[in-house]
Structures are given as C-alpha cells and as structure tokens.
Amino acid sequence: MSIEQQVRNYILENFLFTNDASALANDVSFLEKGIVDSTGVLEMILFLEQEFAIKVADSEMVPENLDTVVNIVHYVQSKHVGK
Amino acid sequence: MQALPPPLRLLHDGLLASAARLPDKVAVVVEGKPYTYAQLLDGAARMANAMQARGVQRGDRVAIFMENSWSCIVSIYAALVAGSVFFVINPQTKSDKLQYILDDSGAKLLLADGQLAPAFMPALAKLPGTVNVICTGEMPTGCHIDSFNTLLESASPAVTRCVGISLDMAALIYTSGSTGNPKGVMQTHQSMLFAAGSLIECLRLDENQRIFCVLPLAFNYGLYQLLMAVQLGATLVLERSFAYPAQIFARMHEYRVTVFPGVPTIFALLLSAHARSPLCFPSITRVTNTAAALPDNFVPRLREIFPNALLFKMYGLTECKRVSYLEPELVDAKPGSVGKAIPGTEVFLLSPDGQDVPPGEIGILHVRGAHVMLGYWKRPDLSADMLKPGKLPGERVLCTQDFFRMDTDGFLYFVGRSDDIIKTRGEKVSPVEVENVLHGIAGIQEAAVVGVPDEMLGQAIRAYVVVAPGFDLSHKQIRAACQMRLESFMVPREVITLSALPKTSTGKVSKKMLLEQHT
Hints:
- The structure holds two protein chains of two kinds.
- Chain A is mainly α.
- Chain A has helices at about 5-15, 40-50, 65, 70-80.
- Chain A has one domain: Non-ribosomal Peptide Synthetase Peptidyl Carrier Protein, Chain A (Orthogonal Bundle), CATH 1.10.1200.10.
- By secondary structure, chain B is of the alpha/beta class.
- Chain B has 15 helices and 27 strands.
- Classes of the chains: A mainly alpha, B alpha/beta.
C-alpha cells in the first residue's frame, strides 16, 4: 500500500469513522475542516512514527508537515530520503 | 484640573477607552498578524454600522459562528457597539444543533466563516424566519449573503453612540444542559464588566501583559481573555487551536507572552511534549487553570515548564463566569483546593434543605455577587432551579448545584456534581444530548452515556448500547453517525455493546451499575 493510501485509511477510519474514500480530499486542511483537533494530532504523530518508522521532532509538528494528506505524504517521504 | 475618564458602563467602553489612550498599541495578534487598538475600533465601528443598516437594533441577538480569528474579534465588538447581544457558537457545531441555537435565540443576524457553510446553510434553510448573513472568505453560492470583507471596507467608520445602559444584555452564552438541549445564559454589560474586573484584580494583571489564548472564543474562558486584554489595554495573542505544538511554542517565544490560560487537557499535552523534549517558557509570569480540576501531580512539572509563573487554580461556571481562585502562594499549602470567592463576591454552602453547613461538611455551593447571570434565555423554569431568593428583598443568589466542602480557613474543595454532566477536555457534555443522537441511529434500541476517568481528557465519553435484533452495527458506524451530529469532543471515544442495560427497580437505566459491571 502507498504512503498516501495508508495515511488516508488511517484518517478515514480514526477521525471520520468511515470507509467512504470520497469523504476526504487530499488537499483539505484537517484543522479548517475540524477533522483533527489537538489530541488527534498527537495520536496521528504516534501513528506516523510506528507505521513509517520515523521520529517526528517537536520542531516538525507544524501544519506544513501535518495538516493535509499531501503534506503528510511529502513529509514522510522527506524523512525517508534523509535516512 | 484634568477631567476624570468616563466610567466603564458598557462592555465595549473598555475598547473605546483603550483605543483613545493607546491607538497604536497592538491589541491582538492573530496567528502571527498584529492589529492595533485603532484598527480594532475602526473594524468594530464599520461592522456595527453595517449591522444596523441590516436592521439590527438594541437588544437583538447576533450569532457569531467563526473560528478564533480577527473577524471573530471584530464581530464581537461590532455587535456590542451596535447595542445588540452577541454569542459565539463553537465552529464544530453541526447543523441540527446550530439550527436549534439560532431558533432558540431568535438571532437576527449570523456572522459566519464561509468554510462553515456546510453546517450553517442547511440550518438556515430549516429556520422558520429569515436571518441576515454576513460571511467571511469563500461565499456559499445560490443565495444572497453579504461579504464581511466588502462591508468592512465600504461601511462608515463613524462610531455610533450607543443608547444601551449597563443593565442591558451583552451576551447570551450557550452551555450544555442536563436536559440535552443547550441553554442560553443571559449576562448583562454590568455583570460581564464586573467579572472581567474581578479577574483582572485576582490575576494581578496590567496593561503590559501579553495574554496567550488557544482556547476557543466560543468558550467563556477564551472569551474573557479577550475582554480582559481589551479592558486593560494589554495585548492578546490568539491562536486557532493547540493542534500543532511546534507552531504554538514558537509563537509563545516570539511574542514573549506573559499569561498562559489552559485547561487540564492542554496542560497534559504540554507535559507530554515536555517529556519528549524539555520545554521552558521563562517569559510567562501567570498560568491559569479552570474548567476541570488540575491534577496535583501536574504542578511540579508545570513549574519546570513555567519557572517564573504564578499558578492560579480556579473554579467557575458559565452562570457566573468565575466563582473562586486560589492565591498562587497557597498552591502547596492547600492542595486540592480551588480557593476562595473572587474579589467583590461571596460564597457559602447550604444543605439541600437550605441550612448552613459547618466547616468540613459537604454542602451545595451558593454564589452571591454582581457576576451572577440574569437567568436562562426563555427558560424561567430552569432559571428557578439555579437562582434562589437571597437575604435582601428581590435579591437572587446562584445555586451552583455542585457539592463542595469548606475547611476552617474558608477554602473550597470541589466534591462532585449533582447532575451527571461529563467534563471532557474542559468542555461540558450532556449525556442526554449524546444519548439522543444514539437513539436516533436506526438499530439502536437502548443507549446510556457515561464519563470515565482519562489522563489526557479528564473524562472520556463511553457509550453503552443495545443493538436491536436483525441489525448489524459496528462501533465505527455508531461513532460515524455521532460525528455527523455532534461536536467532535462529544463523540463517544468508546462504544460497548451489551445485550441489555441494567435497570433500577423503577425501570431507569442505572449508570452506577453499568460502571460497576462493565469497566
């Protein structure tokens, strides 16, 4: 499964509680749409760390890395390249 | 001799005074963008004129359905300048509840964020009357709605002289009720000015403060950070949420903020970030907690994060804004206490039959002061449960319905609630409201909702359900159905399916037995 698919499945299942893929666009802001809140972001970070074997530094917990599916995919890819 | 400044009678007199005294000072920083007092007054005056041109009159209710933003702040003060009654609705609110609130309040005007159209458009369509709408950002199509930004540019900046007096209602603050439907707490200009002034006094604030606010302005606690900052001529640094910690911490350092108001869930998030890599905010001189009790074991680690801060533990309820606070110097001497009445008010404990309660024994907390609400909007029955005759003729004191103990020195200790309202992430949740949504899901026969202890949330919401024969409902489907109708903090975190719910001898679901039998 691609990174995008894994991230999408996680968000759909854990925050939108649905299997309907059309419920989530890849460029929609989680915060603007109220999909993820403050405790949700921490849960999501734990998921990313476990699933993709990366370590999210405190300084990386910013919307540019985490607020859309596209941003997360880019972020995870950049972490893998840097390894 | 120099003339004395005019007294503050109306809630927005604080803005007029600060804008006259400190026009070029930064009043608010919203997500990194600064705005001066002159800009805030200009925006509020223009929007007030636009509101009046749309028929808003003294005493009309004006609903604000927005995220923490510059537009939201302008809307609040504009509604006040126009002589109307404002209320900020949590932007997570879904359309059915929004419709209820708009209908209940009889709102004449709605100011909303364009991105929230999926929630407010269906709500407006179902309302019996018409409501004028002013909208920020992207405008929903297919109907006549005014653009917030266009009005802000085109309306007259002349400040309308307000005809209102201090006894007029300034805000209607919706709060969860044990009956399931939210109820509007009526607060006057006088009561809100009094509460803000009393808090400024007990927190020892002055105009040099930079108050950091990640709490929603729809939440009383967040709203008062704005009111206090403006009344003082201080600066409010406003963020949309605590979701992205690195961004929040950078902003706190950048603006050298001095006051940090939080709820236990926010402090738990801070402590968890601190455990990953140590945090330290030396500029913060005051940390405040309310909405739910701060666990005593948080205190030593919070002192590592805020080495120069006084820590204020407080207790309050929307019906009088704030009841008590503990002097920060006494945090170690009086563990578990929420202190004494805020300045200019008093509290006492009474037994259920109205007798005085001696020190050390449990009683119902009563509050006397100018901060007490006028009552619940259009609900004299519910108002009568909370407002009781006082010692003076015609006086009313607030019966909080919360159980407390008072020690021999007069310090208060919270014991428990007399209703089954759940406190999660600092928000009040009515189990009935969640149960009503669960009962509305096809296939759910019975449902009961309780709060269970949770380190991060204070209490987490757990739902027990009985699924009717022939129906196949997954927990995910149940939570998804809740997510459609409830704010996300109200969605049960856990769902447990049972074959039947335990009942008392009178046939009512026993939540006590549920918790004992199924943990």
